[in-house]
Write a structure and sequence with these properties.
single chain, mainly alpha, 2 helices, 0% strand, transmembrane helix, transmembrane, membrane
């Protein structure tokens, strides 16, 4: 659990610019979706 919290802190975006924050969230979402897809396909 501590590893997940540490990972969440490292990928957190503290930008005040809403466009940057949205792009960051979109990028992270695509990466997570790709990982879920790969694990479900090959796992």
């Amino acid at each position: 659990m501590h590893e997940l919290i540490r990972l969440a802190r490292t990928i957190r975006c503290d930008s005040a610019n809403p466009v940057k924050a949205f792009r960051h969230r979109l990028r992270i979402g695509v990466i997570v979706a790709a990982l879920i897809f790969l694990v479900s396909t090959f796992g």
